[in-house]
Amino acid sequence: PPGVRLPRPPGSDPEDIRSFIAGNLTAGHFAAPIRAVDRTVLWARDGDGTPVAYCLLVHDSQPTSSEPASLRHGPTVELDTFSVHADRVA
């Protein structure tokens, strides 16, 4: 979902990570962005079809005042989230 970041800095308490996942990374949290007409979810799968990465794109996102003026003209696509399974990171 937009804005969700998995807290995994070195030394993170495994229980804190499990709690965050249980409360924020459920099927229900992903359902709304997947169904939204202004969003696209792209999946990367391994040879067996198992998802190994995904990204969430937001179409025509509203730029913030801190972005350069050149980015304030539409249409735009924002890379909101990009996540790769830890076992797939080299």
Name some characteristics of this structure.
three-stranded antiparallel β-sheet; 90 residues; alpha+beta
Report on the structure:
The chain is of the alpha+beta class and about 90 residues long. It has one domain (about 15-90). It is about 20% helix and about 25% strand. It is built from 2 helices and 3 strands. It has helices spanning about 15-25, 25-35, and strands at about 40-45, 50-60, 75-85. A 3-stranded antiparallel sheet has the order 1-2-3, covered by helices on one side. β1 and β2 (about 50-60) form a beta hairpin. The chain is extended, with a radius of gyration of 16 Å. The model has no long low-confidence stretch (mean pLDDT about 80).
Cα gyration radius (Å): 16 Å
For the biggest β-sheet, the strand order reads 1-2-3
The biggest beta sheet, please?
3 strands, antiparallel
Helical stretch count?
Answer: 2
Fraction in beta strands: 25-35%
Overall morphology: extended
What's the layout of helices and strands?
Blueprint: H1 14-24, H2 27-35, E1 39-45, E2 51-59, E3 77-84
Summarize this structure briefly.
The protein has 90 residues and is of the alpha+beta class. 22% of the residues lie in helices and 27% in strands. It has one domain (14-88).
